[in-house]
Amino acid sequence: MAPTTPYSPHLEGRDPLAVMRETIPALAQAVAGWTPEQFERPVAPGKWTIKQILTHLAQTEMALGTRARMALTRSAFVAQSFDQDGWLAREHTMSGPDAVQAFVLLATMNLNLYATLSDADRETPFTHDEYGPMTVDWIIYQEAGHQVHHLKQLRALGA
Length: 159
Known about the structure:
The protein is mainly alpha-helical.
């Protein structure tokens, strides 16, 4: 049974790995050739810019991929939450193109790992300091749905 995550509804019942294979290049294509000014456009007044969303995507890939790797290699792993706004504030000088490149590389690295996992690997348990027990499969569904969520957001903005 597929895990339920905050972002899994964006998958619409599809396999998360298949979704990632489509979404990773689609996100990059959505902003290909953009000017620095376009990356600095906020999605709404007082909201993140496109560049910040792309940086957030890369940071999320880094965090969730690390959690999966730790869970797969350490027994009784406990994941810590992270402050997405705090992380974003630390990397405010990253350019839009660099954020896209970081996202594509990290997401591809994660996808390649996830594609090698057995069903038993995907059911590897770990604990999150806020959300309690979860599995590597939960991470995979969360990550794929998170990518789709932000791709929809970019497309709604005309990207």
